[in-house]
Amino acid sequence: MKGNNHIPEETIIDYVSGELEEQEEEQIQRHLNECERCMEMAVHWRQLFDYNRREPVQPPPTLKENMWQMVHSKKTKKRKEIWKPVTAVCTFAATIGLLFLVFKGEMEEKPYEVVKNDEIPFETFHSTPNTKQLNIVPAVNHQQINGNMWINGDTKEMFLEVDGLPHYPNRDYQLWIIFSNDDVEGELLILQDGASRIFFQGIDVEKFKLIKASVEPKGGSTYQTGPDTFFVDFNH
Amino acid sequence: MEDKEALQLIKNMTVGSKHSFDQFYETYIPFVFQIAYHMLGDYSEAEDVSQDVFLEVLQKIDQYDPKKGSVKAWLAVKTKSRCLDRLRKKRPVLVNRLEKMAREKEQGADMAFLEQIEKKIIFDALTHLPEAQREAIVRSYFNGETHREIAGAMEKPLGSIKSLIRYGLNNLRKQKNIVHWVESNGGDGK
């Protein structure tokens, strides 16, 4: 099932909450009548909101002050970061722009679909028969990294979950998929609290030779320029 | 609150507006906290998740896509995602959730939606338990069987079932905080 045929979860939540215009609401209703997965999601959210109404809970009064302290400290940190040399910022912006154009062109031609982190549907292919799990091997200097990869040749799906990636303010992590014919595909890994999840649909997992990740300039590179952080070797 | 107004509040907060923070907090945090609490069944964990979501929103305001839905829906999805991450990575939270689910079931609460959302994570965690412990837990928590019914089905004394469940939950608590996968059964707990 193609991920982009489903309604975004946010839209489903707005539908359940009665936030949509009548016309859009009708469209969503029609889709839900035909799509089991979206209907299931709508039912879950409706039940959760009903439950919230039936069993209301209030956050503790201390939460507000704790949060404000956090927001305040983030803001101070951010201000310190602003005073970077202008030339560096300009170069950085130009690089991003250039890379964006390169990547945009490439991404439009990719034969597979990719979703990352929060966009990944909760029900992936983990319980599908013939799903294999592989361990992620950290590179020498990144022993705190751990995670797993699941692949399924029948469904042509791959899911990778990695934890413990150190954050570099001006760098991104990039995943490199090297196929048996030495073709290479690159995908950015988006970090959330040191973790990243990425899900591929329609990718030829049978032809994987090596998967690795490296630290690259912000926005990614067209080929690997930075050090390896972890890898998954399919030859062993 | 309109989405444009909410986004403006977030932007104001990032430059230190206490007034904007107060407004945003009063509007959205009760909603976020409720989702987190009902998914995790734990007050302090729900607090932590609410803080995580709040900070993430401040740092990633550019990721908000109005075409997908409202700011409130965006917050809801982020909260659910953070809760599932926490259940996946913190075994004690998962076990406490499982026990709370069982208590609420006994009180007649309809927990079907939570079971559906959290079932896969719990099943993944159960795959490393000895088979008898896993079976007893699945029968008790997911099939809704009484200890007596389980004892009959598994052909074991009633006391053994209570022990199996207790040992199983203790083993689950001790597991490492990364979800493992058993290739032979694909994590379906069978």
UniProtKB/TrEMBL annotation, chain A:
List UniProt keywords, sorted A-Z: Membrane, Transmembrane, Transmembrane helix
Q: What Pfam families does the entry give?
A: zf-HC2
Give the domain of life: Bacteria
Which InterPro entries does the UniProt entry name for this protein? Anti_sigma_zinc_sf, Znf_put
Q: Which residues cross the membrane?
A: 82-103
**Record's signal peptide:** none
Give all residue intervals belonging to the Putative zinc-finger domain.
13-38
Q: Does the keyword Cytoplasm apply?
A: no
Of which family is this protein a member?
Belongs to the zinc-associated anti-sigma factor (ZAS) superfamily. Anti-sigma-W factor family.
Q: What is this protein called?
A: Anti-sigma-W factor RsiW
**Upper lineage:** Bacteria, Bacillati, Bacillota, Bacilli, Bacillales
UniProtKB/TrEMBL annotation, chain B:
Gene3D superfamilies, alphabetized: 1.10.1740.10, Winged helix-like DNA-binding domain superfamily/Winged helix DNA-binding domain
Q: Which residues form the RNA polymerase sigma-70 region domain?
A: 24-91, 125-174
Cited Pfam families: Sigma70_r2, Sigma70_r4
Q: Does the keyword DNA-binding apply?
A: yes
**What UniProt keywords apply to this chain's record, in alphabetical order?**
DNA-binding, Sigma factor, Transcription, Transcription regulation
One GO MF term on file is: sigma factor activity
Its GO biological process annotations read:
DNA-templated transcription initiation
Could you confirm whether the keyword DNA-binding appears in this record?
A: yes
**Similarity comment:** Belongs to the sigma-70 factor family. ECF subfamily.
NCBIfam families from the entry? sigma70-ECF
What this protein is called in its record is Sigma-70 family RNA polymerase sigma factor
Q: Which organism is it from?
A: Fervidibacillus albus
